[in-house]
Structures are given as structure tokens and as C-alpha cells.
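DM between two lab members

TW: hey, do you still have the 5'-methylthioadenosine/S-adenosylhomocysteine nucleosidase entry open?
JB: yeah, one sec
JB: this one, 386 aa:
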Amino acid sequence: MSGSLIVVLTALDVEYEAVREKLDGPRLHRHPQGTRFEVGRLVDGRCRIALGLVGKGNQSAAVLAERAIAEFAPTALLFVGVAGALHTHIALGDVVVATHVYAFHGGTSEDDGFKSRPRVWEVSHGADQIARHVARGSSWAGDPRAHRRTPEVHFGPIAAGEVVLNSTVSSHARWIQRNYNDALAIEMEGAGVAQAAHLNRALPVVVVRGVSDRADGTKETTDREQWQARAVANAAAFTTALAESLAAEELDRDRFDATGTTRSSEMSETIRNVAKDNARVIVQAGHVHGGVRVSGAQDSPTDPTEAIAGLTVRLQQARAAGHLDEDTYREAQAELATARETLRTTKPQDTGSVTLALKKVRGLVGDVATLAAEVASVIALVQGLT
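TW: and the structure you got?
JB:
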């Protein structure tokens, strides 16, 4: 299964539920090996989320992150949860966004002590910039009148290991302070997720943590005071706002080049392939810039609504022929319905939302070359409305 969406992973049930509450009608998606995800659109948003629970620890996080990446081919991968603060200026309930993640358990034991051999993964520059832009606004935190204090967002390193740290004076705590004194927070899954993303062509990954304790021996007290639930609610709010911004960035990247001009203006030369009788042309070109138009003996529709209606029929035919499975068919039809409704109800027409829906369809049907090419031609038709 493929498509343009964002994977969000959590380790704890309380974290999972905080994100799930923000999804409109999440639908169960079963992986062949038994892993269950839920896929839904953000309430009052355009972004689609595939939500998964990985459990505690970097190892399980890495395995299930890899599984989610292979299953959904996401635009980005976000990990949301709680963490312990390692510095006193970070308040309970604040949000920490990793600029890079330390896997701090690597090392070698020698006669004169344990020597650290850490691994580190940096967040991509683009994802970091988008996260900072979201943090500069206050809308992600909701109505400030509903909070006793608007949580701050801190950017910096996060340390990820295999133990829960709840002391500032233990040998383990002193070792972290000595070797990772710039880390803002400590947790148990970020390194696994970062490694999985690194192995998949540097997929953008962002680790977002709400501070639920101070890793200082007071964890039982802060948990009793419900700081875990409050911290994860703040982290989930920031994560979903970030997901919306990442989805919008993907749409903008498809529509504009680095100079701000539309991609359709990059190439004026037209390559026309003509098919007659029962032949059918897909695309014949070394590099394709701008729109692609596919036509047979008759011209393709020039009205986007009519073209999308034609895609609906083609999806039905592809399913009947066994080219699409039932889940992919239903998801693609739902995106086409969204595109049709957006064209019908928005004045002026929201071509950005329509394009995003059609791109998701193109991702879903990518294994059916003829159908994917037809979707590409409709995307070009819609973008021509602007």
C-alpha cells in the first residue's frame, strides 16, 4: 500500500489515544504480520495520518517504524510521546523537539571505565525548519485561555536508551550528565525510529516529546499529578500541527520550484504520443516536467469534475480486473469523492486541496501504470485552473 500520508508512532497507550482523538473516523488497517494501524484524516484538517503503537524500547520502535514505512511510503514519520527533562529550565508540560537523537548505550568497557561510543542522527534541515515555524505560532496549543500556562517548545538533542532514568545522582545519571550534557530530555524509542528513517533514503523524521517528569526521582509524584496525560496532550497537539504543515509543504513542493515559479512553466516543449485503434500510450520521456496529458482516439475531458468522474469509473474497472485490492480501491474512491466535493463547494475553487487528494490517489494506484498516468493528467488539468 502506498500513498501520500504521514506516519505517527507512539510507545504508550496514553500517547496513542491523545493522537487518535484528533483523527476523524480512523479506519483499521491490518498489516499481514498482525500489526494494526489506524488511518484517518485530522479533524478540521487535510492531512491523513497512519497511527501505530510500537511499545517501549528502541528495538521494537525500529522494527515497527520500518514496517510502517514499507507499508505506507509516508511523506514523513513523526514519533510522539513523553520524556523526562534533563535541565531545570524545561518545565513540566513543555514540548521538546529533537534536533538530533543520541543512542547513548553504545560503548566499550575497559579497565579504567566505560567509554562511550554513541550514535547520533540529525533531523533533516527542512523538517527542522518547518517544526520551528510551527513553534513560533501559538495556534498549535489551542485557545490560550483554556490553559494555565502555554507550553514552551524547546529544540535540542534528545538521549534515547533502554532504561527509565529516575535519578540525578545514580551512576547512570552521572554518566549521562558527563557524556550527553547538552541533551534536553531522555526517552527510550527515538533512536530506533531515527535509524529506521535513515535506512529509508533519509525519510524526514521528527521526534516530539512532552515533558512529564524531571528524571530526578519524582516520577511517581508527577505521574500521580497527571502530568503524563497533560504532557502527551501538548506533544500530540504540536505533532498534529506539524503534520499539517509537512503535508502543505509537500503540496507546495509539487507546485513550485525553488525560485517560486510553477513547475508547469519549466518546460514549454510538448511531447505528444498518439495512439490509434486499440493501442494505448502511457508516458514516453526521459524526464517529465510539469503536467502530463494522456489521451486516446478522443480528447480527454477539459472539465475537472468530468475528469474525476472518469477516474471513478476507471477505478471500478481496475478493481473488477483484479488490479486493485479492496482496501486500496476504497481509499482511492474516498479521495476522489473529497476532490469532487471540494470542487463543488469552494468558491474560488480550492485547487490545492483537490490536487492533494488526487496525489494521494496517484500514490495508491502507482502499481497500475495506465491509471497512475491518467491521474497525473487530471492533476495537471486541475493545476491549470489556478
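TW: got it. The mean pLDDT is 84. The CA atoms of residues 107 and 117 lie 4 Å apart.
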